[in-house]
């Protein structure tokens, strides 16, 4: 299909640019913009060991890179020896061992969590292992929020800066186990800390409807999506209003803060405009509708892109949107 063709073409372009970057060649102009965009659009793409990228076929294990250990081998080790094995620099099997650890997260969730707990207690802040562990256990269907969230809450700022995508992915997957009846304060602390440590100076916003996919895969877009999951579990009635202080405080921050990632967060927020308008009409009229005004809001085009992803309307909403609709 067209999307598959576009992804393959992007991968070939990214590979060339990534190789140049790895060789220390300076990228600039459109080449730099394309490299930044594809790196953010496809965050799992990595240069492979040796020259694997250059071949259409390469012998690997069933989960990715070659590895010299199985899950049974890895988790038969004590947590200290396990972490030592994963941290060992090995040209042929280093990435494969990380893959084994990551893919164990779904079925051997407790083993991966025990590894993360050991790393947390010993203050081992290796980004690759935390990324692999969090994205791995995010695929688990077990309720592990209470075991993992306290660790994530206290991760160093450097991990939040470098592994924002992995943390956001874990939040989006895990938030389904956080209910209004729980003490959700840890959730808001984690999400606020992620926003505090965003590093998006080189983020280039996509044009047209491509920004939808960019927003969905951006850390801020992902945690905004997590907020929607949380609100759905709150079962808020029409006209009842947004819960305060949270998530109202978080949503207000996404609306107020500047920077490309916050713009992507607003794209996600506006995809639920009708929902907000239904539960808190006055707030939506005061805080959301003005952002759709092309004459007064510099980012109106992005908010409209978000809304048009899911353009539900009511008679009252159309009336409130009528001035902005003239400029579309």
Walk me through what this model shows:
There is one protein chain. The protein has about 325 residues and is mainly α. The protein is about 60% helix and about 0% strand. The protein has helices spanning about 1-20, 30-40, 70-75, 80-85, 95-105, 110-120, 125-135, 145-155, 155-160, 165-175, 185-195, 210-215, 220-235, 250-255, 260-270, 275-280, 280-285, 300-310, 315-325. The two termini are about 30 Å apart. Mean pLDDT is about 85; it is low at about 50-65.
What keywords describe this structure?
single chain, 328 residues, mainly alpha
Quick structural gist:
This protein has 328 residues and is an all-alpha fold.
Summed over residues and divided by their number, the pLDDT gives a mean of 87
Shape: globular
Number of helices: 19
Please bin the fraction of helical residues: 55-70%
Poorly predicted runs: 49-63
SSE order: HHHHHHHHHHHHHHHHHHH
| Main sheet attributes: strand count, strand direction, barrel closure | none
Strand residue percentage: under 5%
Query: Which structural class do the helices and strands define?
Result: mainly alpha
Radius of gyration: 22 Å
SSE arrangement:
Elements: H1 2-22, H2 29-41, H3 71-76, H4 79-87, H5 94-103, H6 109-121, H7 127-137, H8 145-153, H9 157-162, H10 164-174, H11 185-196, H12 210-216, H13 219-234, H14 248-256, H15 260-270, H16 273-279, H17 281-287, H18 300-309, H19 315-325
Helix pairs in contact: 1-2, 4-6, 5-7, 6-7, 7-10, 8-11, 10-13, 12-15, 13-15, 14-15, 15-18, 16-17
């Amino acid at each position: 299909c067209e999307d598959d063709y576009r992804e393959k073409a992007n991968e070939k372009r990214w590979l060339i640019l990534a190789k140049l970057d790895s060789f220390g060649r300076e990228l600039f102009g459109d080449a730099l913009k394309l490299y930044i965009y594809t790196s953010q659009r496809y965050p799992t793409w990595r240069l492979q060991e040796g020259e694997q990228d250059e071949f259409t076929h390469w012998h690997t294990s069933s989960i990715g890179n070659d590895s010299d250990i199985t899950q049974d081998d890895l988790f038969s080790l004590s947590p200290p020896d396990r972490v030592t094995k994963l941290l060992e620099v090995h040209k042929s099997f280093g990435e494969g061992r990380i893959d084994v650890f990551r893919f164990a997260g779904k079925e051997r969730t407790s083993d991966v969590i025990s590894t993360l707990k050991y790393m947390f207690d010993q203050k081992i802040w290796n980004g690759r292992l935390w990324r692999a562990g969090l994205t791995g256990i995010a695929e688990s269907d077990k309720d592990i929020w209470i075991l993992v969230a306290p660790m994530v809450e206290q991760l160093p700022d450097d991990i939040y800066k470098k592994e924002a995508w992995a943390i956001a992915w874990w939040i989006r997957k895990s938030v389904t186990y956080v209910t209004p009846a729980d003490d959700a304060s840890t959730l808001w602390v984690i999400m606020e800390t992620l926003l505090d440590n965003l590093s998006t100076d080189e983020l280039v916003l996509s044009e047209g409807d491509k920004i939808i996919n960019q927003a969905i895969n951006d850390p801020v877009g992902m945690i905004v999506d997590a907020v929607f999951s949380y609100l759905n579990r709150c079962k808020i009635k029409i006209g009842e209003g947004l819960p305060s202080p949270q998530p109202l405080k978080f949503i207000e921050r996404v609306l107020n803060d500047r920077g490309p990632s916050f713009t992507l967060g607003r794209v996600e927020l506006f995809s639920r405009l009708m929902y907000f308008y239904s539960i808190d009409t006055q707030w939506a009229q005061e805080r959301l509708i003005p952002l759709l005004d092309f004459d007064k809001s510099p980012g109106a085009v992005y908010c409209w892109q978000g809304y048009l992803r899911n353009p539900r309307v009511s008679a009252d909403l159309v009336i409130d949107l009528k001035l902005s609709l003239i400029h579309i």
